[in-house]
Write a structure and sequence with these properties.
With about 475 residues, the chain is α+β, with helices and mostly antiparallel strands. The chain is built from 15 helices and 23 strands. The protein has helices at about 15-25, 40-60, 75-80, 80-85, 115-125, 170-190, 235-240, 265-275, 300-315, 330-340, 350-355, 375-400, 410-415, 425, 430-435, and strands at about 30, 35-40, 65, 70-75, 90-95, 100-110, 130-140, 155-165, 195-200, 210-220, 225-230, 245, 250-255, 255-265, 290-295, 320-325, 345, 355-360, 365-370, 400-405, 420-425, 440-445, 460-465. It has a seven-stranded mixed sheet with strand order 3-7-8-14-11-10-9, sandwiched between helices. It is globular and about 80 Å long. The two termini are about 30 Å apart.
């Protein structure tokens, strides 16, 4: 167990607990410019695993990686009026460079629909060029007034996918494919978080989109977190940037485009979904360190055994770190618990004399002794058990913190500690505005069976509302 006072308890001050975890798990530090962050090696190692898992799924869906400039001419954004209006308060604009005033200001990208649209228009001529499926891993800037590391920072890392299609149906199908087969699959099966899948109401859509799909998770303080979004952009950007193709009959037509993205906010979601008063709890499939082998004492025989066990685990394909017995054992246990490493392998002289080691689970704290030669296989099995247990815990939390209600007043009360679910007919219009005065927003719309609707005009839709990050 972590030493008393190492972290602020969640039920005492959740925001402070979050800041403590980010700092003491060595995830990130504040950057020199307000709202920016320095991602430390352990935090970046988690991001690298997020990248690898999402990137593999994106490529399986047929998209290819490219890179587009950080600077975008200001005139590009003004071509799509709703888009520039949606981002205007967050834009960082460069007016001087090289000691001179620029003839046209340039915007530091808040997202890349406009610059990618410019090049799609250049690269697409025929139906044979479609679909064009692009993705980039990049940084973006959205000037934040109330920054919080990993959740809202003025600069953050993400991937943004951008695609062009010949038909509305093809574009809509692809955006949903990304949402289900990339985002939902990753968030559930790697990040271990159960989410609601749905569409945004018109007032909550991405600027310039005709439809926005979202993955909404519940955090341990009862607030919602938007974890990834996919957007159908219709022909809005195609018309603004003249993205046309000739169909098989030779007739010119505008493309239908999509965009979709997930960011370092997922790390914030990881912390707040699974973390406890002892620190992070990292699901094994995501963990950069799946097991840490700790020498209980700084003795030659113990350190030698620790090294050998680490080699065996590495040979078994387990991501492992060795912690030789230097310094207080209790302090070292605390440090690894804060980092959320799934399994701790404790190697002590008395256990070694009997050919045993002790395995400790981070998620439950349970300990079990196993024979040294059995440790790799037992740890591999435990890692899968932990992964499934973490997801089940998230499913239980989502269910227990979702209340079915029948009025705006009841929704307002329930949203103080989770999601409220009620008829969209009760919410749309005045109801949505009334909830917004209490910092409660429509997180997504679903059909009554939980499936994702085509649009918000379908009959008998359900609204899921909450306070959010």
């Amino acid at each position: 167990m972590a030493q008393p006072g190492v972290l602020t308890p969640q039920n005492e001050d959740f925001p402070r607990w979050y800041q403590d975890v980010v700092a003491k798990a060595e995830m990130a530090d504040n950057g020199p410019v307000r709202g920016t962050m320095v991602i430390r090696p352990y935090g970046y190692a988690i991001w690298e695993h997020i990248q690898a898992e999402i990137d593999r799924r994106i490529k399986a869906a047929g998209a290819e990686n490219a890179y587009f400039p950080l600077f975008i001419p200001e005139s590009y954004l003004s071509r799509e009026a709703e888009h520039v209006e949606g981002f205007s308060p967050e834009l960082a604009v460069v007016t001087h460079a090289g000691g001179e005033q620029l003839s046209e200001p340039v915007v530091v990208r808040p997202t890349s629909e406009t610059v990618i649209g410019e090049f799609m228009a250049k690269w697409i001529q025929s139906h044979r060029d479609l679909p064009l499926l692009l993705n980039q891993w990049a940084n973006v800037v959205r000037w934040e007034l109330r920054p919080r590391m990993f959740l809202r920072t003025s600069e953050f890392l993400w991937q943004e996918g951008h695609t062009a299609h010949a038909t509305f149906e093809d574009a809509a199908t692809y955006a949903r494919k990304i949402h289900h087969e990339v985002y939902n699959d990753f968030i559930q099966n790697v990040l271990g978080v159960q989410v609601y899948l749905g569409i945004k109401s018109k007032s909550e859509r991405f600027a310039g989109a005709t439809n926005t799909m979202t993955c909404e998770g519940i955090m341990r303080d009862g607030k919602a977190l938007q974890m990834a979004t996919s957007h159908e952009l219709g022909q809005n950007f195609a018309k603004a940037f003249d993205i046309k193709f000739q169909d098989e009959s030779g007739t010119a037509a505008y493309c239908y485009t999509t965009s979709w993205g997930a960011s370092t906010r997922l790390i914030g979601g990881l912390i707040m979904s699974h973390g406890d008063d002892n620190g992070l709890v990292v699901p094994p499939r995501l963990a950069p360190i799946q097991a840490v082998v700790l020498a209980v004492r700084d003795e030659e025989s113990v350190n030698s055994a620790t090294d050998e066990i680490s080699r065996q685990l590495l040979d078994a394909g387990i991501r492992v770190r060795t912690d030789r017995g230097r310094g207080s054992f209790g302090r070292r246990v605390t440090d690894w618990e804060i980092k959320g490493v799934p399994i701790r392998v404790e190697v002590g002289p008395r256990d070694l004399a009997e050919g045993l080691v002790t395995l400790a689970r981070r998620d439950t704290g349970e300990k079990v002794q196993v024979r040294i030669e059995e440790a790799p296989a037992r740890i591999a099995t435990l890692l899968e058990e932990i992964q499934l247990a973490i997801l089940q815990g998230s499913r239980n939390a989502l269910a227990s913190r979702t209340a079915d209600v029948s009025s705006i007043a009841e929704a307002s009360e329930a949203a103080n500690d989770g999601f409220a679910r009620l008829s969209w007919d009760l919410v749309k219009g005045e109801g949505e505005a009334a909830l917004r005065t209490q910092a409660i927003t429509v997180r997504c719309l679903q059909r009554a069976d939980g499936s994702m609707p085509e649009n918000e005009d379908e009959a008998n839709l359900v609204a899921i509302v909450a306070k959010s990050y």
